Amino acid sequence: MIMRGFAASFLALSLFLPAASWAASDAERAAICAEALERFDAVKAALPPTDPGVVTVLMYKYNFCSKSLSVKTGTVVRFVNVDKRTSHSVWFKAWGKDESDRLFPEEYWEMKFDIPGTYPYLCGPHWQQEGMVGQIEVVD
Ligand SMILES: [Cu+2]
């Protein structure tokens, strides 16, 4: 009886887990990124100021804001976690780079882009299930 109950719950759970990723739609992402900006306004005073020209990407609710970005060669991008509890990472996996350390709320990580090209990246813990990925285009 217990085993049957367990099997039934497992089946029920499986039915509710979508096979595809849980990536947000464009509209959901826009709302999440608007919220991320508000969070950033609340926490940025605690961060060291950026040098001029540094571009900021926010990490919030399993999204990178902006998800895709075009920057000039030589630009430094600062990835800031503005979540309240969740940690994230930045990983240029396709380029064979090491994953960044886990970034806890209000922590950041920077990378300089010296060579033009397309740089897809992802969040180590959240790219598979939550579709937390981004891309940076580096142009002259
Ligand atoms: Cu993440």
Label this structure with key terms:
140 residues; alpha/beta; Immunoglobulin-like; four-stranded mixed sheet; binds copper (II) ion
Describe it for me?
With 140 residues, the protein is an alpha/beta fold. It contains two helices and seven strands, in the order ααβββββββ. Strands 2-1-4-5 form a four-stranded mixed sheet. It binds copper (II) ion. The site of copper (II) ion (CU) has 6 residues, from loops. Residues 62, 88, 123, 125-126, 132 line the site of copper (II) ion.
Strand content: 25-35%
Helix content: 10-25%
Number of helices: 2
As a whole number of angstroms, the C-alpha radius of gyration is: 18 Å
Indicate the CATH class: Mainly Beta
Mean pLDDT: 88
Kindly report the CATH topology.
Answer: Immunoglobulin-like
Give the SSE string.
HHEEEEEEE
**Order of strands in the sheet with the most strands?**
2-1-4-5
Within CATH, the superfamily carries the name Cupredoxins -  blue copper proteins
Architecture (CATH level 2) name: Sandwich
Number of strands: 7
- Enumerate the distinct ligands: copper (II) ion
Termini distance? 67 Å
Structural topology:
Blueprint: H1 2-16, H2 26-43, E1 55-60, E2 63-65, E3 68-72, E4 75-81, E5 108-113, E6 117-122, E7 133-139
Parallel strand pairs: 1-4, 3-7
Antiparallel strand pairs: 1-2, 4-5, 6-7
The structure holds copper (II) ion.
